[in-house]
Amino acid sequence: MAEKTRYSDAELEEFRAIINEKLQLAYRDYNQMMRQLMNADGNDVDDTSPTYKILEEGSATQSKEELIQLAGRQQKFIQGLEAALVRIENKTYGIDRITGELIPKERLRAVPHATLSVASKNARKTR
After folding, report:
1. What is the pLDDT of residue 55?
2. Rounded average pLDDT per 10-residue block, the chain, 127 residues
3. How would you write 50-91 as a 3-class SS string?
4. Using CA of residue 21, residue 24, residue 27, residue 29, what is the dihedral sign?
5. Of 18, 76, 107, 126, which is the most exposed, with the fewest CB atoms less than 10 Å away?
């Protein structure tokens, strides 16, 4: 029996459902972060009150910087998921981009935007 070179259409649909669910949550979280960064949900006076609490302001700045980093990571995650959907459309989803072999289903269920098997990823790290 020949070795399987790609996932079946039914398997790809299973992965599409997983990715769409993760994408929906990722967009929700990203939008929430952006609202927080833009004070869209705030009803406070941060932007109008006199600046007299230096420590509080420093803490707020640090929190904002951390939120910006998180939002950036979330945006990268969303892009990875969207790229995975394109690979599903092209029927190239789940194929290790280094070895050309199928990435195990367990890995794809845990990390649906993965383009490398664990072995390929570890081999890349040791170089």
Report:
1. 53
2. 81 97 97 87 54 58 87 97 97 95 96 95 83
3. CCCCHHHHHHHHHHHHHHHHHHHHHHHHHHHHHHHHHHHHCC
4. negative
5. 126
124: three-class secondary structure by DSSP? helix
User: What gap in Å lies between CA 19 and CA 112, rounded to an integer?
Assistant: 6
Phi then psi for 112, rounded to 5 degrees?
A: -65, -15
Number of Cβ atoms within 10 Å of the Cβ of 126: 5
Q: Are 37 and 71 a contacting pair, CB within 8 Å?
A: yes
Whether 94 and 15 have beta carbons less than 8 Å apart is answered as: yes
- DSSP letter at 116 equals S
